[in-house]
Amino acid sequence: MNDSKKTENASATPNQNGATGDAGAGAAGQAAPAPAGEPDPFAVLENFRRENAELKDKLLRGLAEMENLRRRAEREVADAKLYGVTSFARDMLIVADNLRRAAESVPPGTRDQEGTSLKVLLEGIDLTERDFLSRLAKYGVKKLEPLGTKFDPNLHEALFEVPEETAPSGTVVQVVEDGYTIGDRVLRPAKVGVSRGGLKPGS
C-alpha cells in the first residue's frame, strides 16, 4: 500500500514540473516592461527633436544677423568713403565761387575782344573752373542746375520772389549762388530767386 502511494506521487511529480515549465516559457515570450524609474524612450526622442528644431532656428537667426551686420558694415564703409570728404568739399566750394565771380565781374563787351590779354585770362579762368568741378565730381560732388526748374525746398533756398509772366509760378528764374550735392545728399543748397504770379500750370 505504501508502494502504490509512492508510485502515484512519483507519477504526479513530472506533471507538476511540466506545467510549471510551460508557464515559465509563456512568461519569457512576453515584452519585459521598462524598469521602474527610467525615462520613456519615446519622450526622450521627442525632446531631442524639439531641441534640434530650437537649435536650427537659433542657427538660422544667427546667420541672418551676421548677414545684416555684414551689409551694414559694407554700407558704412561706402558712406565713409563717399561722405568722409564732405567738410573738405564744402570748403572747396568757395574756390569755385571765386572763380565764377572773377569770370562774371568782367563786362560782356570786354570778354569778346579778340587778341586781348584779358580774354586769354578769362579763358584760363573758365578752363580752371571746369577742371576744378570735374575733380570734385570724382568725389561725388556735382553742381546743381536749378535754372528753369520747379523750386524744390530740399535742393534750393529761395531768397526772393520775382514777378514773372513768362514762367509758371514757383519756377527758379535766377541763381544767386550755385548749389551742390555729394552722393544723394545736399552739400549746399542753391540760393535762388523764384517766379511769382506767372503762367498757371497747363496754360
Q: What would the keywords be for this entry?
A:
203 residues, alpha+beta, Nucleotide Exchange Factor Grpe, Chain A, domain 2, 3-stranded antiparallel β-sheet, 3-stranded mixed β-sheet, 15% strand
Characterise this structure:
The protein is α+β, with helices and mostly antiparallel strands and 203 residues long. It has a domain at 144-203: Head domain of nucleotide exchange factor GrpE (Nucleotide Exchange Factor Grpe, Chain A, domain 2, Roll), CATH 2.30.22. It contains five helices and six strands. The protein has helices spanning 2-28, 41-83, 86-104, 108-111, 117-137; strands at residues 141-143, 156-163, 172-177, 180-182, 185-188, 190-196. The strands form two sheets. A three-stranded antiparallel sheet has the order 1-4-5. A three-stranded mixed sheet has the order 2-6-3, with no helix packed on it. A hairpin with a 2-residue loop joins strand 4 and strand 5. It is elongated, with a radius of gyration of 48 Å. It starts with a helix and ends in a 7-residue tail after the last strand. Residues 10-31 have low confidence and may be disordered.
Concise structural overview:
With 203 residues, this protein is of the alpha+beta class.
CATH fold node name of the domain at 144-203: Nucleotide Exchange Factor Grpe, Chain A, domain 2
Mean pLDDT: 81
Name the CATH homologous superfamily of the domain at 144-203: Head domain of nucleotide exchange factor GrpE
- Which regions contain 5 or more consecutive residues with pLDDT less than 50? 10-31
